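@channel sequence for tomorrow's demo:
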Amino acid sequence: DMDRLDYLKRDSFYTGVAEGNINAERLITMLNVVDGSLVVEEKGIYSVEKFLMARRFMYWQVYLHKTGIVAEQLLIRVLRRAREVHANDGSLPASESLRYFLANEVGRGNFTPEILLKFSSLDDVDILSALKAWQHHPDFVLSELSKMILNRELLKIKVKNREVSDKKFEKIKSDCKSVYQLSDKEVAYFVFKGAIENRAYNREKENINILMANSRTIDVAKASDHLNLDALSKTVTKYYMCYPKKSVT
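structure tokens (generated this afternoon):
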């Protein structure tokens, strides 16, 4: 859709990843309408192929890049720890808007226009200024996580096609607990694992139909002679594990 055409070109430009650059003008020119649905004319099929391949590449190389994953997970955990610390002493330094979300449970059931206004007032400055203050907090977990983000000394991350074994995962957790003198609850902030998924083309919900020369419309995966295009409709799952570099020798 138009949103994807826009962000692929924009993100490709700002990240310097040339493979994400697509010919949006060509795709728009090739659009047509059949029975009230948008289709792409047959002569634009190669532009569609490039669009799907570019989307797959940008997800693995940019949006799901391992450095971005570990940084995002650290930010989630530092905010989670901040809520715990704030619940205990209530004196955690933060802006008024950020302090509201640290002190209150917010979900769909109680998300009011007033809360939306508070949320919309949050930006990077609120988070960065809080991290700069929290890095000096006596709570070890909050302090260390804040320093990791501010100093860009992130956790080590490994991304594999198979999930790490429980035995290896527990061994790394045990080593980390020993090195940093952490409790079972605290070590979960530094050693954790998860999964990431990428599906460049969803036939069921976001299919792209090609208008053939004989006026028939067929799915792009069937119309294309690109061997890898059919594989793009399958979900690819990869597994990651994060841990401090000092805890593993």
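heads up for whoever presents: Residues 78-154 form a domain with the Growth Hormone; Chain: A; fold (CATH 1.20.1250.30).
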